[in-house]
Amino acid sequence: MSRAATYPQKTITAMTYFVNRLLGIGFILLLSTQLTQAQYELRIWNSFGVSAPLTDKLSARVSYMRSFRFSEEPFETSFNWYSIRLSYNFNRDWNFSLGSAWMNLPNANRTTFRVTAETTHRMKLDRRFVLRNSLQIETHNDQESRFDQRIIASSRLGLRKRLDLLKVAPSLTYSLFYNIGGNEIRYFNSAGEPLARKSANGLHRGRMMANFNFKLSPPLRLSVFYINQHEFNLVLSQTNKINVLNLNTGRIQRPFNNQHIVGISLSYQLSHLLDDHILPINF
Description:
Layout: H1 3-31, H2 33-36, E1 41-53, E2 58-69, E3 76-89, E4 94-105, E5 110-124, E6 129-140, E7 149-159, E8 168-180, E9 185-188, E10 194-198, E11 202-217, E12 220-234, E13 244-246, E14 251-253, E15 259-269
Parallel strand pairs: 1-15
Antiparallel strand pairs: 1-2, 2-3, 3-4, 4-5, 5-6, 6-7, 7-8, 8-11, 9-10, 11-12, 12-15, 13-14
């Protein structure tokens, strides 16, 4: 076999090894005593999205999501989310997407903006299961104070075909978030003396999601999901942590944002209303 033939396989193997090892670390953190004792808030996410084929391989999706704080009476909106994404399928196993998203925070009276790029690889495990590993890179505007960029590694285990019962497709996803940049945090040594003032770069968030996707009709899908979001300090350095006490003010800087999230997502596929793709060209 030629070097050119073995190169894609080496790339797949390296990407799978990297993502799976990274997610394995995060899964251990999810089960650790520190996380089970952490305080969690309850959120409700409701979303709607529409997707359409632009060419045989290129598609577009727009979506809206609203997040509620369940603890408030009446329910208080924590954020509104608007996004658009273009996806290109190189083949059945490789996908690349570019997108942007706006997150409006009513209480803070500000809106963050991000641009994302993501690559996804699909791997058949056996006759029933398929594993999708993805790597996403984000860059944010200055309205996002916690980080300037983020890297998100995800792995999703699902079925190759829907179950006959209710036409449901269950899946389980774990994601790890690596923060880069953001507002500086003040660090102190054990004697209370200033040690450093810098951004908290590192792995600081994980998400475990259980999702049940139902095929209501040929163009309509409904997802019911639960997400466990947990934050932590997976760093060796004392000056890359979040949830740090500021000894001058007595306040916690960048406190852990741990959440239980339940939600529904409705998706409509315009391909079932069209005889052909939208763009007059195909690539």
